[in-house]
Amino acid sequence: MTNHHEPQTKSDSIVDAFVAYARNLEYEALPADVVHATKVRLIDTFGALIGGFFGEPSRISRAVSMHTTSPSGATIIGTRDKTSMDMAAFVNGVTARFVEMNDVYHWPKAGGAHPSDVIMPLLAVAESEHSSGRDLIAAIVLAYEVYLCMANSVRTPGFDFINNQSLAVAIAAGKLMRLSNEEMAQCISLVVVPNNALGQARSGHLSHWKAAASGQAGRAGVFAAMLARAGMQGAVTPFEGRAGWSTVVAGGPFTLAPMSGEPGASHFRILDTIIKPRSSCATTLSSILAAEKAGQFLEGARAIDTVTVEVYQRAVHLGEGEHSFNPDTRESADHSIPYVVAAALIDGTVTPRSFLETRLWDPELRALVHKVNVIHNPAFTEDYEKLPVEHRTRVTVATKAGVEHVGEIRTLKGAPIDPMDDSEIEDKFRMLTQEYFGSKRARAILDRLWSVEEVSDVGEIPPAFAL
Hints:
Blueprint: H1 13-24, H2 32-51, H3 56-65, E1 69-75, E2 82-83, H4 85-98, H5 119-129, H6 133-153, H7 162-176, H8 181-192, H9 209-230, H10 245-248, H11 285-294, E3 304-311, H12 313-316, H13 322-325, H14 330-333, H15 337-347, H16 357-360, H17 363-369, E4 372-376, H18 378-384, E5 393-399, E6 404-409, H19 422-450
Parallel strand pairs: 3-4
Antiparallel strand pairs: 1-2, 3-5, 5-6
Helix pairs in contact: 1-8, 2-4, 2-6, 2-19, 3-4, 4-5, 4-9, 5-6, 5-7, 5-9, 6-7, 7-8, 7-9, 8-9, 11-15, 15-17
């Protein structure tokens, strides 16, 4: 009988490149600004998790996780309960993603990414492995580099960008588990071949799965590393095989963009991500900030006749379709420019409370949503697709009295060209957590996270977040 399987010895150049990069990246080689940027994103992600702890997808995930208790596993953050390492990656990943306040990445011609989705899955591994704070920092930087390397290397229409997240988590989890080169290669195959999520998670009316997809990607990455360590073999040539990822998902061969330390890479890509200033989808943020400016001198929503929002091309679809004007879930509302602009004009800003059930169905807010028109401004698109990236947006509010109020922005606070300073990062953390922790406890947590590189066992950190 003819054996149609490819030989186990055949190499895959993409797998080989990631294995070599993971082997060589160590904490000691990280510049000070990269270490600091990693701590910023760790703080930011913990804040987002606590802010989303009571969301419905978070509650459901915790309920399911309680069927898999594991005293030697990892903590369900916000509780003192422990579950298996991969299930903790799922639950904590879902919870950190729900409130839409974790970081985001935009680079001209690159695919989408929420790279801080890697942080909670890696924390679960680091806790279970009793890793040091330095090991965790290095793993996070590694995961960001892999994730954003893939985002810059290939776009995969129809597939969700979280597929890059699951790969990044698998490689960084393998690093924390100290997998051998061969085990790491198997780990990569074990995540690439079985896990190819569809972009339908972010299309039309959105559901719980918008947040849960990131948790599932994190779980898949951790599970792949667990299997590889136990000796499981993955499919050969997962990228470059006849029916591999390159052909089926990417649509053809591709070349990896350089990662930091390689020729053509100037710095670690974790420095390029955007810390969100508001609780909403990244492509709605500039519309919110412009609406806040336009609404400063309005005298109530009833005075408004029309609202025109001029945006770059990538944002236009968030102002089109029935789901944008009649959002029926929090997930759809935070991806609707008409909704978030209306909320900003009425309330002065957008916070997690802007998406509570009572606010979502408020008649005055709903009426204003239908007065918002989103249009494309080609000049704004040009500035969005060059470096440095500008998120130019203009909101024009025409009143029934014939007066126009205009708000316009060029850059996002929290973007690489206008970063938040440490005090602003702390203010955001407090906004999301102080209701539960109080000022003294929040200060103690912040101090611990700012010095996480000094922690000998990351397992010391999760208990501080128990609600």
